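The instructor's notes for this session suggest beginning with a concrete chain rather than abstract definitions. Hand out the sequence below and ask the class to guess, before any prediction is shown, which regions might be ordered.
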Amino acid sequence: MLLLPKFDYEEPKSMREALAMLSELKGSAKVIAGGTDLLVNMKKGTVRPTRLVSLKKIGGLREIAREDAGLSIGSHVTISEIADSALVVSLFPVLARSASCLGSPLIRNRATIGGNIVTARPAADLPPALMVLGAEVQLKGKGKSRTVPLDSFFTGPGSSVMKAGEVLTKISVPAVPSFTGGDYIKLGHRAALEIAIVAVASRLTLDRPDGVIVDARIVLSSVAPTAVHAPLAEKALTGQRPSEELFARAASIAATECSPITDLRGGAGYRCDMVGILTRRTLLKAFHDASGMKEGGA
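After discussion, reveal the predicted structure:
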């Protein structure tokens, strides 16, 4: 049986105290939220922090609130809270769908949105949906704060632009235009507790219910070192009148815009084929939602 290594545990009562502590420890500490990834990696020995810093006693990190016409989501909001939130479901159903795909009910009740982002796993469920929504993350360090678009956040498997001593405090999701729809589909061997073989999030915005596509976003997951856009497929859709033929053509293009590996869960060729299939399906659902609504809500 794998045991956790020894570590000290801290519960600062303010963000200022937490940031000062992380700055002083200079990379030897880790922030713990739900712990669903961190504790497993500590047992495996892949990370060895000497101190864990919990932010659970700091106010404001567990809130989902309106921000302008969009949403502000605290980094310690759990995945189940996102999946079940009436605000998220009504404004950003694609995000609620991606949250409902993560793990099992037990994991969703522990895991947090901030943790799902900062671990920077290529197959993480929430980043693709957040990326098609144009989300940004707020990073705070001692005496400084910065906002980073999620499109620019990930740099590789397990790595991001976060610096030692920084904490992800909130995720901002801007309002979507009217006549916008989206979808997220995850392919795995099982219905739950599964790491994605392939996942795709898509979003379409029309100029009117029966009009042309004015904005298209497609993000592919588990087929590259990070979640990635399919820019050529997005370009092929923009300015065009929606049709099944157009979506099939864009899906074929998306299948060429990834660089998957072959592993025990699936071969590279199979993953590319599935990118095409899932892209077409998500685009059809996104179009159905966009053409059938009068207000934004990807």
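Then share the key points. Residues 111 and 125 are 12 Å apart (CA to CA). The chain has a mean pLDDT of 92.
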